[in-house]
Amino acid sequence: MAVKVLIVDKKWEADVSACIVKDRREAQMVVFPVKERWDAQTSIYLVPNLLDAELKVYIASSAAEG
Question: What is the pLDDT of residue 1?
């Protein structure tokens, strides 16, 4: 199962900063974006540079994927 995450616009609103990776094997977590905060298990702030990220994530196509 993918972790349901809310992608936020401001770093201070997030639990962790993350960078998206294309290869699932490189990811530390498989996530599925949701639109509502109440539906999310955690919140992330996306950063473009892998060196600035605390976590590498792979975006799943469904919440059941994992």
Answer: 87
Q: Is residue 66 part of a domain?
A: no
Number of separate domains in the chain: 1
Residue among 51, 1, 4 at smallest CA distance from 43: 4
- Whole-angstrom Cα distance, residue 30 to residue 57? 6
- The first and second tokens of residue 56, run together, are 């590498």
Domain span including residue 40: 3-59
Contact yes or no for 58/28 (Cβ under 8 A) = no
Instruction: Pick the closest to residue 59 from 4, 16, 9 (CA basis).
Output: 4
pLDDT digits (tens, 9 = 90+) for 1-44: 899 999 999 999 999 999 999 999 999 999 999 999 999 999 99
CB 1 within 8 A of CB 64: yes
